[in-house]
Design brief:
The structure is a homotetramer. By secondary structure, chain A is of the alpha+beta class. The first copy, chain A, has one domain: Roll (Thiol Ester Dehydrase, Chain A). A five-stranded antiparallel beta sheet of chain A has the order 1-3-4-5-2, covered by helices on one side. Strand 2 of chain C pairs antiparallel with strand 2 of chain D, so a sheet runs across the interface.
């Protein structure tokens, strides 16, 4: 069994929140959200983060980079149901390595934690070759938002 | 950041394989399979496993149990594309704890490893209360298939 | 080839609008929204309608009815792309027959029409038997909102 | 309400069949396949047709054409459930106009008709401009398979 162990990312982070209403067809035969859809909710969180801080796919693409996922994980604590309005908290954890590590929380309206997870994205060039040092544009990005970084 | 660290499951396993053809709409704007769909492929593997060994959702339900996912993770090694016929290897790793841990591999036609991951399912009663010891039916299940277990 | 021809519904309607942001994975390899996702957008429109006017699945279910789709159709005029914020216009067209006919428009931010369609839902009892006359609760529903009906 | 009325396509056809197993997450809270997924099953049928007769997206693309959907419709007769193995019948109906009209049937294992529908695709150039006459490659395609056309 091939398995990479991913260390916890640094605790400090940049954060954005967004809301997602559970769609009818996202609920399975057990009348709870099918587990795979949480990666969609994470994606929604990551995209909201990108819109707020200027780190959308096209922003990255314009700089000559692609940021494919190399890892995703999710722990499930309680189910969500049709019609629930969920809050997705997306946090980018700046780190020295050439990658983007986000952590996520999915919370119910009463703030109960339903799921939490992590995604890791690598930087590659447009041909898919891995980039081993942080791109200059990303260093500039981190500098621009340094005063927004939360130190828990 | 809330994160549970899941130990590697025992190395021995029961295995089933199935094939999945990548659907047109599973490919994203980068013309590769969107990462979230691998949880669908894992599900296909788990269901094929259930059909072969008699551990489908309804088999479990008839015994008075539900087996919700409490964890999923995936490492991505190389992209799949529209029309690819993927092999999904699903392995159940029998363990002393009251849970089902599967590991998965998704392989290309030339056997290259595209993705690998793990899912963990808990046993609950129909009302969602966690069951802390292995149900008798699952003990019987493991006994029935003991001679099929692979010791790597 | 079996095909039912559905007459145009009456032109008068009750209307609700909602907005949908195109998700990353809803875009296909041609970088446009895959055509099947418009049924999701229609569903979002229908649900928003249900929330506004009190005609959600559970409202109907509490009355002892299920409203399965018996027909859906969509004409596509122009593509939507990742990140687009679409307006979904959902209109219920009250009619004498025992069914719910909705028409939909999906519009871009500049109001261009991207897609338009219709769904038809039957009333059945919980066992799936077709109900041939309008249920009393639905007659009351139409009466309650009669002054909101738009006559074009 | 904008609505195009699509005439019945010619009755003769080229046919291919394929099988689809209903996925766990394709079933909704009513434990039946969510109606929108039938467009996925139609797509699976269309792709199987393309593989058999040499009319895949890339075949068309290599000839300099794109074939976006301009219409889809589906009538629902009976529900499918998790684990069902469905047969999708896809029929291309050759016609004089510059478009591809497919009809579909989705059948249960006992051959009961669950759903039937139509999709219409236009020919466009790579920039999306509509092509008004049948491309030469498509005329050649129809000639090549003329003896396989079924006249009901």
């Amino acid at each position: 069994m091939k398995r990479r162990r991913w260390a916890d990312p640094p605790s400090r982070y940049l954060e954005e929140q967004t809301q997602v209403r559970v769609r009818f067809q996202e609920v399975d035969g057990l009348r709870i959200v099918w587990h795979g859809h949480y990666l969609t909710y994470f994606e929604e969180g990551r995209l909201a983060f990108g819109r707020r801080f200027g780190l959308e796919y096209r922003d990255v693409l314009e700089q000559g980079y692609v940021i494919p996922l190399v890892h995703a994980e999710c722990d499930y604590y309680a189910p969500a149901r049709h019609g629930d309005v969920l809050t997705v908290v997306a946090r980018l954890h700046p780190e020295a390595a050439a990658r983007l590590t986000f952590s996520f929380e999915v919370r119910a309206e009463d703030q109960r934690l339903l799921a939490a997870g992590i995604t890791v994205q690598a930087f590659t060039d447009p041909d898919g070759a891995l980039v081993l040092t942080r791109p200059a544009f990303y260093e500039a990005f981190l500098e621009r938002w340094a005063d927004q970084v939360v130190e828990p």
